[in-house]
Amino acid sequence: MRRLLPLALLAACLWRAPHAAAASPPYFYPFVSPYEATVMELPRWLEVSLPATVPIREFTLRVFPEREIPAVFWYEDGLVCSLAYQDRAAPLIFVVPGTGARYNSAKTLKLQKLLHQAGFHVVALSSPIHMDFVVNAGTGLPGEPWQDAEDLYRVMALAYEAVRRRVEVSSVALVGYSLGGFNAAFVARLDEERRRFNFRRVLIVNPPVDLYGAVSALDDLLVQNIPGGIDAIEPFLRSVLATVGAAAKELGYAELSGEVLYQAYKLLPRKEESLAALIGLVFRMSAGDMMFTADVMNGGGYIVPRNARLTNSTSLTRFAAVAYRTRFVDYFDEYLFPHRQAREPGLTKDGLRRRMSLRSLEAYLRTADKLRLVHNEDDIILAPGEIEYLQSVFAGRARVFPTGGHMGNTFHPDVARAIVEAVTGREP
Amino acid sequence: MGVLPGRTALAVPAVAAVLLLAACSTLPHVGPDTVPPLRTYAEVVTTPGPHLLDVSDPVEGFNRGAYRVNYYLDEYLFLPIVRAYEFVVPDYVENRISSVLDNIGEFNNLTNSLLQLKLKKAGITLSRFVVNSTVGIAGLWDPAADLGLVRQSEDFGQTLGHYGVGSGAYLVLPVLGPSSARDAAGVAADSVAFSFVGPIAWIDDVAVSAAYSGTAAVDRRHRIPFRYRQTGSPFEYELLRMLYPMKRELEIAD
Predict the structure, then answer these.
(1) Three state DSSP letters for chain B
(2) Candidate from B29, B60, B250 with C-beta closest to A309
(3) Angstroms from B136 CA to nearest CA on chain A
(4) Neighbours of B153 (CB within 10 A)
(5) What whole-number distance in Å separates Cα of residue A407 and Cα of residue A410?
(6) Cis link prior to B13 (omega < 30° from 0)?
């Protein structure tokens, strides 16, 4: 059987050759609704093929060795990152994941495989608003883009030192998706001054334009689609869980899978609204996780009392109840803005809001030849007009797909190819 | 001859460790200089409860201790073993092992279906056991599923729930994880029944029992996708405590 394999491969190549020569088929994406696209897994046959495993090493960074980790985060012990390595000299690429995602989240791992397959050493980091990052590597309240970029830059420099002992690096690139794309744009700009990496290429995938606006819109999905908002979430969650259970039973599966979730979705009453509400809920929860963590790390006063000690057995239930009832706009108004103002007298709310936008980087984004953008016209984190804005700023350096929602089509073969072409520079 | 499942045997020292930890208070340590936060519970949570996160947890100190012990056991004992198992054993063989263990486990599904007088379920389970033990060669494969006979999971906790026994206090069992007073009693009853009259007891051989317990423990962890810290949330304990009763209610209703 093994010996037949090369033969089969050869046959496959011959068979494919005429197709490869013809114009590639138009982009086909199965989900028309951007909410569906955002949540549902692509069917297998429509996904780019990725290696089952790639050689990966995890490593732990102690960014501030002197920092005392609060006892309430008893499980935190350094910032873990992962390296997918090549056996020879190769370019290295950093991956900055989206809102609250960890270095080993499903999407980050897939992106790591895709880029490894394209020939990179791939270092996956955690999002600067993931609790691991906030506890081990954050230096203030997350959300101010330059400070988040500084924190990321520090981590990247340490990670680079750590991996260089193991692998030979020929050049450095950077990719970020979603909030990570937003972060990556600021890191790229920072690197123009610091010159630590001299990124060969920087790719931002599905970033928000105006962070405050995007985040408020996500938050509204929850409030607008569940009458009563978070306080009325219980019956909603119960019905969703029951539906997922029914779908799993119908399909005869014991475990959750994309198929089960899709089946459940088809059974849900008020499908679209339910999906939108779930997206809003997931977002609200990761924001709440970040706010609580950041509050503890900054001495408390917002959600936890100041000068109180939380231990490894302190009940956090009431803090969770408060954190999950705190919108990002509350955090911005009541905590982030006053915190920044104390550091920068004269800063206005409007000024901070304007800074938290890719528009504040426009001059750089327009001219930096190394930057690339991959995005979707129907991304739910963009406001009307923003995709046109990005297209005008990035012009020939943008690849914009008509559908795909927020990150729903990342591993569609066409999008995956666009990503690889953008970071390798092997563009058509 | 009784078969104590491997994980239950480990529970004894783990309970001792938890009891040592459980003495801690679950309230924040405060002093005279403690200042209340800007957003207090009283001001923010204005609708009447109980809320989704408010699951009755009278032994929270113990539970959080058990949660912590389980985290370390998982990190430094179970997961390394499972990783080695997954590295050495091919996926195909892993699945055959899971299948054999599931077939042996039909014993508890059968007794509990009968106890709940769910005769259709009992019939399906019995047919599954017969078909899979013979055509499926000692349960290595699951041909019954291809005949439309899908596995009917039932345990004694579900049986108690079926007869209206409330879940009781939330309980984190050392080694075994999230549970409740009712379900913990169920786990105990199921494992006692299994040890004395279940399929492994029919063989009555210490080596077989030990091999079964060890394999079942590894297989069980291998098949549970949950990983600590996967939620990325500082409230992971609360989130599990919220989801566990919901999941059980659905299982009981089925």
Answers:
(1) CCCCCHHHHHHHHHHHHHHHHCCCCCCCECCCCCECCCCCHHHHCCCCCCCCCCCCCCCHHHHHHHHHHHHHHHHHHHHHHHHHHHHHCCHHHHHHHHHHHHHHHHHHHHHHHHHCCCHHHHHHHHHHHHHHHHCCCCCCCCHHHHCCCCCCCCCHHHHHHHCCCCCCCEEEECCCEEEEHHHHHHHHHHHHHHHHHCHHHHHCCHHHHHHHHHHHHHHHHHHCCCCCCCCCCCCHHHHHHHHHHHHHHHHHHC
(2) B29
(3) 19
(4) 18
(5) 5
(6) no
Comparing C-alpha atoms, which of B20, B105, B34 is closest to residue B65? B20
Chain A residues lying within 8 Å of B44, measured CB to CB = 321-322, 325-326
Residues 6+ apart with CB under 8 A from A70: A135, A296, A297, A310
Cβ pair A103, A74 in contact under 8 A: no
Residue with tokens 């780019």: A48
Cα–Cα distance for residue pair A312/A6, rounded to 1 Å: 57
Residue by residue, pLDDT tens for chain B (254 residues) are 344 445 555 555 666 666 655 556 788 888 888 999 999 999 988 887 778 888 889 999 999 999 999 999 999 999 999 999 999 999 999 999 999 999 999 999 999 999 999 999 999 999 999 999 999 999 999 999 999 898 899 999 999 999 999 999 999 999 999 999 999 999 999 988 988 888 888 887 888 888 898 999 999 999 988 889 988 999 999 999 988 988 888 888 87
Residue A320 to residue B53, Cβ atoms within 8 A: yes
B24 contacts A313? CB cut-off 8 A:
yes
Scanning the structure block, which residue is given the tokens 């991996």? A163
ipTM of the complex: 0.87
All residues at 6 or more sequence positions from A413 whose CB lies less than 8 Å from its CB, including other chains: A46, A47, A48
Residue B37 has its nearest CB partner, among A285, A301, A321, at A301
A132 to B232: CB separation less than 8 angstroms, yes or no: yes
> Whole-prediction pTM value?
0.88
For residue A318, give the chain B residue with the closest CA.
Answer: B41
Alpha carbon distance A200, A9 (integer Å): 34
Q: B40-70: buried (b, 16+ CB within 10 Å) or exposed (e) per residue?
A: eeeebbeeeeebbbebebebbbbbbbbbbbb
User: B171 forms bridges with which residues in the sheet?
Assistant: B179
Which residues pair with residue A400 across a beta bridge? Answer: A375
Please tell me the distance from the alpha carbon of residue A206 to that of residue A381, in angstroms, as a whole number: 9
User: What six digits make up the tokens of A171?
Assistant: 């050049």
The chain A residue lying nearest B34, using CA atoms, is A307
Chain B interface mutation, best of A315, A319, A326, A333, highest count of B Cβ atoms under 10 Å: A315
Of B31, B41, B228, the CB nearest to A307: B31
Find chain B residues with C-beta within 8 A of A233's C-beta.
Answer: 52
Residues of A in contact with B41 (CB under 8 A): 318, 321-322
Pick left, alpha or beta for residue B26 (phi over 0 → left; psi -120 to 50 → alpha; otherwise beta). alpha
Asked if A316's CB is within 8 angstroms of B238's CB, the reply is yes
Q: Are A303 and A326 in contact (CB under 8 A)?
A: yes
For chain B, the residue count is 254
Cα–Cα distance between A375 and A209 in angstroms, integer?
A: 11
A and B: number of Cβ contacts within 8 A: 144
Q: Give chain A positions within 8 Å (CB) of B38.
A: 301-303, 334-335
